[in-house]
Structure formats: structure tokens, C-alpha cells
Amino acid sequence: MSDLKTKYLSSIVVCFLLVSVFTIPVNAQRVIDYIDISNPFLRKIPIAIPLFRYTPETPQNESLSKEITPLLSQTLEFTGFFKMLNEKAFLEELQKTGISGSSINFKNWTAIGAELLITGGLQVQDKLIVAELRLFDTFSGRLLVGKKYKGWHDDKRKIVRRFCNEIIERLTGSKGFFDSQIAFVSNQTGNKEIFTCDFDGYNVKQITRNRSINLSPAWSHDKEWMAYTSFTKNKPDLYIRHMVGKKRGVFVSFKGHNITPSWHPNRLELAAALSKVGNSEIYLLTGSGKIIKRLTYDWGIDVSPTWSPDGKKIAFVSNRSGNAHIYIKEVESGDIKRLTYEGKYNVSPSWSPKGDRIAFCGRNNVDMFDIYVMNVDGSRKMQLTKNCKNNESPTWSPDGNLIAFSSTRFGKNQIFVMTAYGTDQRLLLSLPGEQFEPSWSR
Amino acid sequence: MTRKRMFVYIVFIGLLALLIFSGCSSQQPDVKTPAEIAEQEAAERARVEAERRIKAEEESRRKKAEIQRQRQIEEQQRRIAQEEAARREKERLAQEEIASKERFVETDIYFDYNESTLRWDSQEELKIKAEWMRTHPDIDIIIEGHCDERGSSAYNIALGERRAETAKNFIVDLGVEPHRIESVSFGEERPIDPRSTEEAWSKNRRAHFVIK
Prior knowledge:
B: alpha+beta, 4 strands
């Protein structure tokens, strides 16, 4: 993550596109958890984001501000942490008051129920935008985050996302996910191909173009590589593809199937299900597809591994009991524990990046599929989707607060997002055809 | 033919002799002795007899030839009929061969939901397929395992492979060499019937046989 960030930053600096010119000094203070991380969605924090001040005062700059302000608002709202206050209730306009703490009358913001306030100022110079963005605690009047960014007009989304990352890190103590991407399978071209989009569904890109069947995309921890199942040789094989440069890809094509890749959380290694011994077993592979060791030994089907964030355990699906259930294996000791006992079909486990929960898909008593989460010992099982047809393939956001999944609630399979508590369920992507198997990058 | 000609000669010479003889006798009063008459009558009888015999011989030869020709025709007809029968039999066998091959390829075996164990009807069909493979030792096959659309597409690939493997093992147990059978899973990706109904699902949970 830090490597990537450095790379991301350096590329920006080199291109002179987007530079955080200086950080507005923030009063030294202890980190206050504004957001209750035990259930951040129980009470949403009311936040006010008035239209950004713009100079010089031209109609073009006004429309620019009217574009960037809602973009920031939507980006933050995506997290599910905030209640966006209606601008019609606002008593002050930044264009008149200014954006620094000294020029703001915080009482005018607490009066309308705002607990947080974001002020922004846009200075437009030719093709460059200088954005000064601040986050305030309206009760204490404290500046929580202050940043200044410089970039081209096309960089407005980047500026907004970087500021949102700062806000989330300040409020929750962990990094935001605004640089993350979601890979998914779509049949919009008539074949199942792999696509990617940004966390918010923006910037859809087609990755594979082999007109075969491509499934189960999985990002490496550094987002440089993607592994997926591909039928290009008329059988299910693994393909490991370089996503950022043009390094050569790798085909993993042992006899039988080669499926369900899952990258190690901090090394370029992956677990995957191979059936070269005549039966589906989970193996640990190098990033170039060489077998390091076999992880499961059982007559049953073993598929769909997912790593604990410390890389010490994998959860996976096995039908060794006769039905498909979720198990955990300690990679070093080899100890195996069964987690699910209810129902006859529990599949697609996804281990939360926070480490404490596992999301999965289970068949319910009316033979439809729903998303559940449970603790890593199988306790505190919670059903997140209900009475809305089939809901499958859960995948966690990098901060562990959101879950993307596929649902047929509107007829065809589409990608949805919800909070880790099942609230705020919404459609992520409106694309032709059907979309399946979302996979959220770190 | 030469005999016939010879006979003609003999008759001719006979007649000539008779003419000479009669010419000589004409010089004499036309009175024949009884001996002469008897002789003449005998010669006449011999001639008639010879003619009759020759005719009979000719007739019998002709008959023989006719019979032989008839036989030849019959023989030929029999041969043609035999060839025709053989050809028909060959055609019938070829058609049977095509039909059995088509049946092998076109008859899938079916599975219950989320199961890879062989149903009774599937076992019966596999016995027919195994027998066909034993009588066609040169043919190698691929068994494709398929699933219905429900559940995880990844799990369905593993389940489809199980289905193909189970079918393969059954055929191998019936005496077909394992190296002749390859198995592959397409999971839920290649449905026969794309609808989301029980009927479609039951058709899609199958093992399909392909000749290499």
C-alpha cells in the first residue's frame, strides 16, 4: 500500500499534475474517534458541505465549483458514515464569509445540526486549479484536516478523492478506500470478460478481450497483478496478468481445473484450487504460478480460499462433510476448523481486512442466496441481505467497512454495495448485460 | 459345324454317284432288280435316318446351350441379388453405426441438484456408452461436466468436474481404458437451456460426451 502510494505520488509530482502544496497546520491533539468503529453506521454524522468559494468570480468558475462540491459530497456519502445536510438549510455562503476558521461563525453550522463542516476554496489560474480544503469540528471550531492541492481541471476527481482519504484517516484512524478499484465479470460484450472500475463505479475499463469465459478476478496486494480463471484453452485455467505495466503474464494450466485465485495479503503469492490430482485441492503458488505447497488433503471439493489479513490462515469452501461449508486452515500448523453448520450450501468466503469477520454466501430456506457475515470462529452470524432474490459473491472494501456483492434483485445480476452491517444497499454500476463476482482491491 | 459340312459333302457325293449310276442305267432299260430297289431303299432310309439323327443331335445341342444360357442368367441374377443384399447390409450397418455414434454424442446423462452421484437412469445410459466404447477401441472421448446456474460459479466448476469424473470412473469400471477418456468442467457457463426454471436447471445439470 505504502509502495503504491509512493509510486502514485511520485508519478503525480513528475507529471506536475497534482501537488499537495502545503498542509495547513492542525493543532496538535489526540486522535478522536469521531466515528464509532464498532458500528459506524448506527449513527451517521451530520456533515455540511457548502458550495466552495471560487475566485475569480466568473460563471465558468461557479459551474466548476458546482461540479466539485457535489463530487466531494457524493464521495464521502459513499462510505455510509455521514448524513449529508441539505444545502437549502445553510445559513452561510462561503463566497461571502471565506473558508478559514477565523472567518466562520460555527454557531450558524451547529444551529442546523452540523457536527462537521467542510469548507473549500478554488482558485482558478488558466488551466490550473488550486483547491484549499478544510474539515472542521463545528462544536469546538477545531480544524481537523487542512490541505491545499494544485492540479489540472481533469484532476478534480483525484483532488477530491485524496482529500476524502485524509478525512477518513483523520476520523476513523484507518485509511480511506478512495484509491481502490473493483474488478468484476461482465457479459455485456456477449462473453464473460473481466472489467475494472473505481470504488464508486466510475471509470469502467475492459481488461480481457479473449471472447472466452473469464471468471473470479483477484487483485494482488500491491494492485500490480490480477489473477483470474480463463477458458481460453477450452478448460478452466488461471491467468496472472500484469495490470500496471507490460510484464509478461503467466498461464497456470495443470491437468484438470485451475480456479479461484486469492492473493496473499502482503506477498506476491497466491492460493488457488487445482484438481491435478483428480480432485479439487488448495495449493499455495508463487506469483509466477509455481507450486510452493499443497494446503488441503481431502477427498471432497476444496475451493475458494481467502486469506486472513495477517496471512497466517485461509478460509475456504469444502464439501468434505457432504455439503458445501466454510472451513479455516492454519497454513503453518495445518489445523482445520469448520465454521458453518447451518444450511447445506455456504460458499464464497471473503475475510474482512480488519480480520474479525468473514462474509459469505449461503443458500436460505427458500432456495435463494443471501450474504451473511460471521466472526472467524463461526459465531455471531448475521444476515445482511433478505427477501431480494439472489445475493452472492461478497467482497470487502479495503477499510473493511463496505461490502460489494452481486444481486438479481432488479432481474439480472448487477453489482451492489452495502455497509458491513447490511445498511445503505445501492446499485454500483448501470451497465448493459449482467455483472458478476466483484473483487475489491486493497 | 465341320461334321455338318462333311455330311453335306457325303450327300453331294452320294447324289453324284447316283446320277452317274442312273446315267449309266439309262442306257439300259429302266428296270431295277429287287436287289437294287432294296439297296436304294436302304440308302434312302439311311439317309433319312442320318438326317433325323443329325436333327436330333442338333436339337439336343440347342437345348443344352439354351439350358446353359438360362443357368448363366440365373447365376448372374443370383449374384446381383447377393451383391445388393450385401450392399444393403453394409448400408444398414453404416446407418446403425452412425445412429449409435449419434446416440453416444447426443444423449447426456443427468444429475440431481448439487449432486455428483450417478442416478439410476444415468448409470443405465453409461452402460450403453461403455459398451459402445468397447466396440470402438480406436475412439477417444472427452466428458464435459456441467451445472445449473444456481450457486457460486467457482464451486460449480469443481462440481462439474466431479460429475465428469464420476461418469468417467463408471465407464472405466466397465472395462474402458482410462487413457481414452479426458474430463473437463464448464461449471455453469454453457447451459443447454438459459432459462431460470426447474425444467431448464434439470437439463443443464449434465455430463456431455464428445468424440475427440
